[in-house]
From TrEMBL:
The keyword Lipid metabolism does not apply. It comes from the Bacteria. This is 4Fe-4S ferredoxin-type domain-containing protein. NCBIfam families: ydjY_domain (NF040466). Residues 1-20 form the signal peptide. Residues 164-193 form the 4Fe-4S ferredoxin-type domain. The lineage of its organism: Bacteria, Bacillati, Bacillota, Clostridia, Peptostreptococcales. Keywords: Signal. InterPro entries: 4Fe4S_Fe-S-bd (IPR017896), YdjY-like (IPR047750). The keyword Signal applies.
Length: 228
């Protein structure tokens, strides 16, 4: 059976429209993928650029390494700068200094509580802007919440607050960025517990979650975000 010229022309037209439509869709998808890649590159930390502040997203991202020692041993330190006196005592070894971290938090609009000192530490819960934290790495399925990668033996949630403490941090030179109980030295710390809960009173034990985190020495990006 022969097709009329009109029908053949119509089919040809539909075929061309379909080809153009598919081509346009592929181009749009390619552009989206390129955009995603560019966005990923914009937030990528490295040894040359260990801290990235994103004012629009209200995040501070710090290059760190997993310290596998604390998969089995407890610690009160979440993240400490590698050259600080506590540089080997944290679950995440940071490549940014406490001062850089403090300044980054100020840039994204966080307000320091400045309510702690060595005299009131054991009875005081740290105050300041609330911050969430996520951790990701090459090959990770997603950015994991801090409560997925750090285990509290009591099952309580980590509640980070921007304590401040910059001048004390400079003086003590511990390198502490984030502590797991309220701290008069760490830039941010966990208001769920008062100072001494881990090392002095044994109220709680914190360890890295080996079921989620990559192996010892793996580079990770720890992103702190100003809570809404």
């Amino acid at each position: 059976m022969k097709l009329s010229r009109k029908i053949m022309a119509g089919l040809l037209c539909l075929s061309l429209v379909g080809m153009v439509g598919c081509s346009s869709k592929k181009n749009e998808e390619s552009k989206k993928e390129a955009t995603k890649t560019e966005e990923k590159m914009k937030i990528e930390v490295s040894e040359k650029n260990p801290i990235i502040v994103d004012k629009k997203a209200k995040t501070v991202t710090v290059l760190s390494q997993v310290n596998g020692k604390y998969f089995t041993e407890p610690t009160r330190h979440a993240s400490v700068e590698k050259s600080g006196s506590n540089g080997t005592k944290s679950i995440f070894t940071a490549y940014a200094t406490p001062e850089q971290f403090y300044n980054g938090l100020v840039e994204i609009g966080a307000k320091a509580g400045e309510n702690m000192n060595p005299d009131n530490a054991t009875t005081t819960h740290v105050e300041g802007s609330k911050l969430t934290a996520t951790v990701t790495w090459d090959g990770a399925d997603k950015a994991y919440d801090i409560n997925d990668v750090v285990k509290d033996s009591n099952g309580k949630k980590i509640d980070f607050r921007f304590g401040g403490n910059l001048e004390r941090a400079k003086t003590k030179k511990t390198g502490c960025l984030s502590c797991l109980d309220s701290c008069p030295v760490g830039i941010i710390s966990n208001t769920t517990y008062t100072y001494g809960a881990v090392e002095k009173r044994n109220e709680v034990a914190f360890t890295g979650n080996a079921d989620v985190l990559p192996e010892d020495g793996t580079f990770v990006a720890v992103t702190y975000k100003l809570a809404e």
